[in-house]
Amino acid sequence: MSRPAVEVADILRAQGSRFLDRYESSFDYQQLKAFRAIQKCRTAALGGHLDSCPQCGHQAISYNSCRNRHCPKCQTQARERWIAKREQELLSTSYFHVVFTVPHELNVLALNNPREFYELLFRASAAAAVLVSAARMIVTDKRARGLRVRNPPHRGRIAAAADASFLIKIVRSATAQRD
After folding, report:
1. Dihedral (C-alpha) 167, 169, 170, 171: value to the nearest 10 degrees?
2. Alpha helices (H) in 72-113, listed in sequence order
Protein backbone atom coordinates (compact mmCIF):
# COMPACT_ATOMS: atom_id res chain seq x y z
CA MET A 1 0.00 0.00 0.00
CA SER A 2 1.47 3.36 -0.98
CA ARG A 3 1.75 6.24 1.45
CA PRO A 4 -0.90 8.93 0.98
CA ALA A 5 0.30 12.39 -0.02
CA VAL A 6 -1.02 13.92 3.22
CA GLU A 7 -1.73 12.09 6.47
CA VAL A 8 -3.67 13.15 9.55
CA ALA A 9 -0.41 13.47 11.49
CA ASP A 10 0.96 15.86 8.82
CA ILE A 11 -2.06 18.12 9.24
CA LEU A 12 -1.85 18.03 13.04
CA ARG A 13 1.87 18.84 12.95
CA ALA A 14 1.33 21.71 10.50
CA GLN A 15 -1.79 23.28 12.03
CA GLY A 16 -2.26 21.52 15.38
CA SER A 17 -0.85 24.32 17.55
CA ARG A 18 -3.09 26.89 15.89
CA PHE A 19 -6.09 24.58 16.29
CA LEU A 20 -5.33 23.92 19.97
CA ASP A 21 -4.90 27.64 20.67
CA ARG A 22 -8.51 28.07 19.70
CA TYR A 23 -10.18 24.80 20.81
CA GLU A 24 -8.06 23.19 23.53
CA SER A 25 -10.58 24.11 26.23
CA SER A 26 -13.18 21.89 24.54
CA PHE A 27 -10.90 18.81 24.67
CA ASP A 28 -10.98 16.37 27.57
CA TYR A 29 -7.77 14.72 28.83
CA GLN A 30 -8.05 11.60 26.63
CA GLN A 31 -8.78 13.59 23.47
CA LEU A 32 -5.82 15.87 24.08
CA LYS A 33 -3.59 12.87 24.80
CA ALA A 34 -4.60 11.22 21.50
CA PHE A 35 -4.19 14.51 19.59
CA ARG A 36 -0.64 14.98 20.90
CA ALA A 37 0.29 11.32 20.37
CA ILE A 38 -0.77 11.50 16.72
CA GLN A 39 1.20 14.74 16.30
CA LYS A 40 4.36 13.04 17.59
CA CYS A 41 3.83 9.68 15.88
CA ARG A 42 6.89 8.49 13.94
CA THR A 43 8.91 11.61 14.66
CA ALA A 44 12.15 12.15 16.56
CA ALA A 45 10.04 13.19 19.57
CA LEU A 46 9.30 9.49 20.24
CA GLY A 47 12.80 8.27 19.46
CA GLY A 48 13.84 5.86 16.78
CA HIS A 49 16.44 3.44 15.55
CA LEU A 50 18.81 3.02 12.63
CA ASP A 51 17.90 0.43 10.00
CA SER A 52 20.60 -0.80 7.64
CA CYS A 53 20.59 -3.11 4.64
CA PRO A 54 23.06 -5.99 5.04
CA GLN A 55 23.61 -6.24 1.24
CA CYS A 56 24.24 -2.62 0.21
CA GLY A 57 24.84 -0.97 3.57
CA HIS A 58 22.15 1.69 3.04
CA GLN A 59 21.02 3.18 6.33
CA ALA A 60 17.76 4.89 7.26
CA ILE A 61 16.26 6.21 10.47
CA SER A 62 12.95 4.66 11.53
CA TYR A 63 11.05 6.65 14.11
CA ASN A 64 8.92 4.96 16.75
CA SER A 65 5.15 4.99 16.50
CA CYS A 66 2.82 6.30 19.19
CA ARG A 67 0.70 3.10 19.30
CA ASN A 68 -2.30 5.16 20.30
CA ARG A 69 -5.52 3.33 19.49
CA HIS A 70 -6.89 6.46 17.78
CA CYS A 71 -3.90 6.94 15.48
CA PRO A 72 -4.85 6.09 11.89
CA LYS A 73 -1.27 5.20 10.97
CA CYS A 74 -0.60 2.92 13.93
CA GLN A 75 -3.93 1.16 13.88
CA THR A 76 -4.25 0.46 10.15
CA GLN A 77 -3.16 -3.18 10.42
CA ALA A 78 -5.25 -3.78 13.55
CA ARG A 79 -8.25 -2.19 11.81
CA GLU A 80 -7.76 -4.37 8.72
CA ARG A 81 -7.58 -7.52 10.90
CA TRP A 82 -10.73 -6.44 12.77
CA ILE A 83 -12.60 -5.79 9.51
CA ALA A 84 -11.56 -9.18 8.11
CA LYS A 85 -12.89 -10.92 11.24
CA ARG A 86 -16.18 -8.99 11.08
CA GLU A 87 -16.59 -9.83 7.38
CA GLN A 88 -16.34 -13.53 8.25
CA GLU A 89 -19.27 -13.08 10.67
CA LEU A 90 -21.58 -11.53 8.06
CA LEU A 91 -24.56 -13.50 6.85
CA SER A 92 -24.90 -13.96 3.10
CA THR A 93 -27.69 -11.43 2.69
CA SER A 94 -28.17 -7.81 1.76
CA TYR A 95 -27.46 -5.20 4.40
CA PHE A 96 -28.59 -1.61 4.56
CA HIS A 97 -27.80 1.33 6.77
CA VAL A 98 -30.57 3.07 8.69
CA VAL A 99 -30.05 6.48 10.30
CA PHE A 100 -32.26 7.86 13.05
CA THR A 101 -31.79 11.56 13.68
CA VAL A 102 -32.97 13.73 16.51
CA PRO A 103 -33.87 17.42 16.46
CA HIS A 104 -30.96 19.78 17.06
CA GLU A 105 -32.70 21.08 20.20
CA LEU A 106 -32.12 17.70 21.90
CA ASN A 107 -28.31 17.92 21.60
CA VAL A 108 -28.10 19.54 25.04
CA LEU A 109 -29.92 16.57 26.56
CA ALA A 110 -27.55 14.17 24.81
CA LEU A 111 -24.51 16.02 26.15
CA ASN A 112 -25.79 16.41 29.71
CA ASN A 113 -27.42 12.96 30.12
CA PRO A 114 -25.73 10.69 27.56
CA ARG A 115 -26.56 7.35 29.19
CA GLU A 116 -30.27 8.06 29.55
CA PHE A 117 -30.52 9.86 26.23
CA TYR A 118 -28.91 7.11 24.17
CA GLU A 119 -30.78 4.38 26.00
CA LEU A 120 -34.05 6.11 25.06
CA LEU A 121 -32.83 6.78 21.52
CA PHE A 122 -31.88 3.13 20.97
CA ARG A 123 -35.15 1.87 22.37
CA ALA A 124 -37.19 4.33 20.31
CA SER A 125 -35.24 3.67 17.10
CA ALA A 126 -35.52 -0.12 17.57
CA ALA A 127 -39.26 0.16 18.14
CA ALA A 128 -39.63 2.46 15.12
CA ALA A 129 -37.64 0.04 12.94
CA VAL A 130 -39.83 -2.86 14.06
CA LEU A 131 -42.94 -0.79 13.40
CA VAL A 132 -41.81 0.26 9.93
CA SER A 133 -40.69 -3.29 9.16
CA ALA A 134 -44.09 -4.66 10.22
CA ALA A 135 -45.87 -2.02 8.11
CA ARG A 136 -43.77 -2.96 5.07
CA MET A 137 -44.64 -6.64 5.59
CA ILE A 138 -48.34 -5.78 5.69
CA VAL A 139 -48.05 -3.85 2.43
CA THR A 140 -46.02 -6.61 0.80
CA ASP A 141 -48.48 -9.23 2.02
CA LYS A 142 -51.48 -7.30 0.71
CA ARG A 143 -49.80 -6.74 -2.64
CA ALA A 144 -48.91 -10.42 -2.83
CA ARG A 145 -52.59 -11.30 -2.38
CA GLY A 146 -53.54 -8.82 -5.08
CA LEU A 147 -55.14 -6.25 -2.75
CA ARG A 148 -54.81 -2.63 -3.72
CA VAL A 149 -53.29 -0.33 -1.12
CA ARG A 150 -53.93 3.38 -1.68
CA ASN A 151 -51.95 4.72 1.29
CA PRO A 152 -49.29 2.20 2.27
CA PRO A 153 -48.98 2.35 6.08
CA HIS A 154 -45.19 2.46 6.05
CA ARG A 155 -45.17 5.92 4.48
CA GLY A 156 -47.35 7.38 7.19
CA ARG A 157 -45.49 5.53 9.91
CA ILE A 158 -42.13 6.80 8.73
CA ALA A 159 -43.39 10.37 8.74
CA ALA A 160 -44.97 9.82 12.16
CA ALA A 161 -41.69 8.41 13.50
CA ALA A 162 -40.15 11.87 13.12
CA ASP A 163 -42.73 13.26 15.53
CA ALA A 164 -41.28 13.44 19.06
CA SER A 165 -44.60 12.58 20.74
CA PHE A 166 -44.81 9.41 18.64
CA LEU A 167 -41.28 8.43 19.70
CA ILE A 168 -42.14 9.08 23.34
CA LYS A 169 -45.14 6.75 23.02
CA ILE A 170 -42.89 4.06 21.55
CA VAL A 171 -40.36 4.48 24.37
CA ARG A 172 -43.08 4.31 27.03
CA SER A 173 -44.51 1.21 25.39
CA ALA A 174 -41.09 -0.46 25.19
CA THR A 175 -40.33 0.47 28.81
CA ALA A 176 -43.68 -0.91 30.00
CA GLN A 177 -43.04 -4.19 28.14
CA ARG A 178 -39.53 -4.46 29.63
CA ASP A 179 -40.72 -3.87 33.20
Report:
1. 90
2. 76-89, 107-112
For residue 157, which amino acid is it? R
Q: How many C-beta atoms surround the C-beta of residue 48 within 10 A?
A: 15
Q: Is 57 left (phi over 0), alpha (psi -120 to 50) or beta?
A: left
Q: Kindly list the distances between the CA atom of residue 58 and the CA atoms of 50, 51, 53, in Å, as whole numbers in the listed order.
A: 10, 8, 5
Backbone φ, ψ for residue 103 (5° rounding): -60, 145
What are the structural domain ranges in the chain? 8-89, 104-178
pLDDT per position as a tens digit, 44-92 = 999 999 999 999 999 999 999 999 989 999 888 888 999 999 999 888 8
